[in-house]
Amino acid sequence: MSELTEAVKEKARRLGFDLAGIVHPGPSDHLSRYKAWLAKGYHAEMGYLSRPDALEKRADPRVLMRGIRSAVVVGLNYYPGDHDEHEESQGKVARYAWGVDYHDVLLDGLGRMAAWLEDHLGRDVIYRPYVDFGPLMERALAQRAGLGWFGKNTNLIHPDIGSYFFLGELLLDVPLAADDPFRGGRCGTCTACLDACPTGALVAPGALDARRCISYLTIEHRGGIPEAMRPLLEDWVFGCDICQEVCPWNQRFASLADPSVFHPSRPVLDLIDVMGLDEDGFRARFRETPLWRAGRGGLLRNAAVTLGNLGAPAGVAALEAAADDQDPLVREHARWALRRIRVG
Q1: Residues 20 and 72: beta-carbon distance below 8 Å
Q2: Label partner for 209 (CA 20 to 30 A): which of 34, 118, 166, 324?
Q3: How many CB atoms lie within 10 A of CB 107?
Q4: Does position 1 have pLDDT exceeding 80, yes or no?
Q5: Distance in Å from the first CA to the final CA of the chain
Q6: One of 60, 132, 173, 273 is an active-site residue; which one?
Q7: CA–CA distance from 211 to each of 49, 97, 241 (Å)?
Q8: Is the pTM of this model over 0.85?
Q9: Is 82 a catalytic residue?
Q10: CA angle 217, 286, 108 (to 5 degrees)
Q11: Please, which pLDDT band fits residue 344 given cuts at 50, 70 and 90?
């Protein structure tokens, strides 16, 4: 078993993954903490996180996949570098979304790993890949597989590469030797992430209230952004990296990812250009990227708020046109931004 396990990890490295660990299926010791988080309403409008059937699966991967014997957990560095200075009509994009859709990249790698394993074993393998979807406690599995600890900003942090990495999982009917879990944490007395969050979303070490999180508000949230929160979004048009940027582990150990993997090219968005996109234009521009998640209405909503925060006179014409958009979400936020620019 140990020889096969090492061969699987070596294959993961050859496929380009930066981290790889093995975990045995079983009840999650993170479930009680997760339920307490849900009970406080910190999951905001993400109702899929609290569905009873999904909770049962999150509690134990053996419910998610019958016959599971082990899970390979991989990490893939995506750090593309820092934001450069940008113009007043541009908004920042979270680093994970600078390139192509990470789901496709990781799923391709996990699929290749499963195919290699079938060839290696000379039999069909029952497997299920996961990348940020499905009722699976990814960070908890990764911690149990030795890939890092839960930081005070809730991200998984690895001592060698920081937290700028994606997670992927391959559930298998193949028995492999489990790694030791990552014990304890290494944040110490540092509270840089809590202190830096402009919206106070990090309500306690390791506790995130999504209702106040810029990433949630600009990506997952489908309605209007609360007016009191809008100025706090500053110049973030999609996602946010602040709690990662200030983390000493990233400042010391984050290294540039291979640019040929995600093809990063989108550190900022031209907000005036975004405000002019119709549905076809949005689809053509963002269909194969993480920004697709926000939808046209969500992205134009965000762009309007950012233009208002920047007080960009150059954006007035685009906002005036958007004030009559067919989408009421876009109209309302464009009119708010116009008022903010004219008053400011």
Answers
A1: yes
A2: 166
A3: 17
A4: no
A5: 66
A6: 132
A7: 14, 21, 17
A8: yes
A9: no
A10: 100
A11: low
Task: Check if the beta carbon of residue 264 is closer than 8 Å to that of residue 98.
Answer: yes
> Which residues have CB under 8 Å from 57's CB, separation 6+?
63, 64, 134, 135, 136
Closest CA to 340 of 253, 233, 188: 233
Kindly report the number of other CB atoms within 10 A of residue 57's CB atom: 17
Residues 6+ apart with CB under 8 A from 288: 100, 101, 104
Please provide residue 102's backbone torsions phi and psi, each rounded to the nearest 5 degrees.
Answer: -65, -25
Identity of the amino acid at 24 = H
Beta bridge partners of residue 23, listed in sequence order: 71
Structure tokens at 27: 């009840």
Report d(CA 105, CA 125) in Å as an integer. Answer: 21
Express each pLDDT in 213-240 by its tens digit: 999 999 999 999 999 999 999 999 999 9
Q: What percent of the chain has pLDDT over 70?
A: 100
